[in-house]
Design a protein that fits this description.
Structural class: mainly alpha
Helix content: over 70%
Largest sheet: none
Radius of gyration: 35 Å
Number of helices: 10
Shape: elongated
Order of helices and strands: HHHHHHHHHH
Distance between the termini: 106 Å
Number of strands: 0
């Protein structure tokens, strides 16, 4: 099978508006039928992305600079984490919250331009995916590929789980050798176990642990604030949908009452039409009998 041809088709499909994906995938599979059976089958097997993954793919297609900023920030955060630079970690955590907010807003705007409105819940998934790319080099490559099919998440300790997250893993550039640690090696554990020329003192270790805890606390506080805003947005969305549902039910009830009334009127009109038809038929027979009588009387007079 032509892997390059499949990758080219995939890149085009995952850059399309969300509602066009399925039809375009079917058309692409038919168009590739002349290349043998494997390529059309592989095209048909390309999974439709989740809405959150699609929104992130839209950033990769239309606003790659936003992802580049997050990728660069992720490098700096990992460097600060490796050197246990507490001050830098706290500052970078604040910078990440700002960039993530901008990136999520940009993703929503791009999605709307592509004909899809992003809810608060989907926006939260987008934010978690973008945060994951700042925590792991593999996730960075996956996000920037534009081939995501599901959202990502990271806890800040272990590497991001990428199995099944990308449509064509072979089309995603691999991280530099040694850049990504095995999934069974927690990042912080690897940092702490890295040999150093001089062993840190107990005070230095405690200070580093405190710095990490403070950075984590600041990060958690920011995430909590984000979740509260998302909760408020979701509650407002639910309220609006509840009101719309109630209005639609009222309209449906009124329409059903009108339909019932119209059916009754139709039944009455049908009965009256049948009665009028019988009356007209009776009058016609009476007229015919009267005409026959006139003709008989006329013949008798002669």
């Amino acid at each position: 099978m032509d892997d390059k041809a499949l990758a080219a088709i995939a890149f085009e499909l995952y850059a399309l508006p969300f509602e066009e994906f399925v039809a375009a995938r079917t058309a692409a599979a038919k168009a590739s039928a002349g290349s043998g059976k494997e390529l059309p089958a592989a095209v048909k097997a390309l999974p439709k992305p989740s809405v959150a993954a699609w929104a992130v793919n839209m950033l990769a297609s239309h606003e790659p600079g936003v992802l580049a900023q997050l990728a660069e920030l992720g490098q700096r955060m990992r460097g600060a984490q490796a050197s246990l630079d507490a001050a830098a970690l706290r500052e970078l955590a604040r910078e990440r919250r700002t960039l993530l907010g901008i990136a999520v807003d940009t993703a929503r705007a791009v999605a709307e331009r592509q004909g899809r409105t992003i809810s608060a819940t989907i926006a939260a998934d987008v934010g978690r995916t973008l945060q994951a790319m700042t925590a792991d080099e593999g996730a960075t490559a996956a996000v920037q590929s534009g081939l995501l099919v599901q959202a990502l998440s990271a806890d800040g300790v272990d590497t991001v789980e990428l199995d099944g997250a990308v449509a064509l893993p072979g089309a995603v550039p691999a991280p530099e050798r040694g850049a990504r640690r095995p999934a069974d090696q927690p990042r912080l554990k690897a940092v702490r176990e890295t040999p150093r020329p001089v062993s840190p003192s107990a005070l230095e270790n405690a200070s580093a642990a405190l710095a990490e805890a403070q950075a984590a606390e600041a990060e958690s506080a920011g995430l909590a604030a984000d979740r509260r805003r998302q909760l408020a947005d979701t509650e407002a969305e639910v309220s609006d949908l509840t009101r719309e549902t109630r209005e639609l039910r009222d309209k449906l009830r009124a329409a059903e009452e009108q339909l019932d009334s119209a059916r009754k009127s139709l039944g009455t009109a049908a009965a009256e039409a049948r009665q009028a038809a019988r009356t007209a038929d009776k009058a016609k027979r009476s007229a015919m009998l009267a005409q026959e009588r006139v003709l008989r009387l006329g013949n008798t007079r002669d």
